[in-house]
From TrEMBL:
Lineage: Archaea, Methanobacteriati, Methanobacteriota, Stenosarchaea group, Halobacteria
Species, as recorded: Haloarcula nitratireducens
Protein name according to UniProt: DUF8158 domain-containing protein
DUF8158 domain mapped to chain residues: 1-109
Length: 109
C-alpha cells in the first residue's frame, strides 16, 4: 500500500502548527510579487510570480497553491477549470514549494 505522508510540510496536510499554512505561502507570494528581490539568488522566482499574479489575480493563485501543496495535484494540471495556462501552474507550484520551504526554515530558526 502506498505511503500517504505529506509531500509538502504545509499545515493543512500535516496538522502541525509549526508548519507554514497555505495562507502564509500565498501571502509571501503576493509580497514577493509586489516587491521582487533584485539581488537575491531567487530573484527570478519573484519576477516570474509577479507576472503570473498580474495576469490572473490572487484567487486563482491561491487555488493553485492549495491544489499543489495540499491536494497533491501535479503543477501542470492544478490549473484545471481556472482559465489559466498549464505552464503558469508550473510556475506557481515551483514558487509555492520554494517559498513554503523558506517559511518553514524560518520557523526552525
Amino acid at each position: 500500500m502506498p505511503d500517504n505522508d505529506a509531500l509538502y510540510d504545509v499545515r493543512e496536510r500535516t496538522k502541525n502548527p509549526e508548519h507554514a499554512s497555505v495562507d502564509d505561502v500565498v501571502k509571501l507570494i503576493l509580497e514577493r510579487a509586489q516587491h521582487p528581490r533584485t539581488e537575491h539568488r531567487d530573484a527570478h522566482l519573484d519576477e516570474m510570480i509577479a507576472t503570473v499574479v498580474d495576469r490572473y489575480g490572487t484567487d486563482p493563485i491561491r487555488t493553485v497553491v492549495h491544489r499543489v501543496l495540499v491536494d497533491h495535484h501535479p503543477f501542470r494540471t492544478a490549473t484545471h477549470d481556472l482559465e489559466m495556462r498549464n505552464v503558469d501552474g508550473v510556475r506557481i507550484g515551483t514558487a509555492a514549494g520554494q517559498f513554503l520551504t523558506e517559511l518553514n526554515a524560518q520557523h526552525d530558526d
